[in-house]
Design brief:
Blueprint lengths: L1 H31 L9 E9 L2 E9 L5 E7 L7 E5 L2 E6 L2 E6 L8 H12 L6 E5 L3 E8 L2 E8 L4 E6 L4 E8 L1
Length: 176
Amino acid sequence: MKKILILFILPAVLVILSLFCFYISKKYIKKNYKHAEIITSFDSTAKINSDGKLYECIIRHTSEQMNTLEITQPKDLEGLMFIWEGGKCTVVWKNLTCEINKEFLPQNAFAETIINILNLISDENNLIFESGNFEKSIFSGKAPCGNFKVTIDKIGKIKTISVPDIKLEVEMISSK
């Protein structure tokens, strides 16, 4: 009889105890979790899927909203660069430079969308914390082109930006 007690009841008690501890720890982590501060000044390579079209870019963003986005792939667009400084946007292509009025850029163009979202992220009041753990945090927000989600890693680096309304997915590959 003691063998049955030891073989069945003891493991059952241990399982129940471990489930209880797991439940309590999950509640504690969720209640006490504090995400990392989002790093808004960076230099990063990114893979972009914009409505099925694939691009690779170098994105430079500062918290002062001085931004560049340079396309490195596909080859036929390599070197095309957008520079935002203050209210101005400059487009550079090979030896040509053109300053354009930001109002003429479509709000759902991927370059403009990414920069708009990065500028919004610079002020966390524009974001809603969705979920997080010790590896990543997910935020949502609203931009002129639609709702977006941003994922950051445990130290605050932006890892992904998603804008379902315009079928835009951005994955930050390496960041400085």
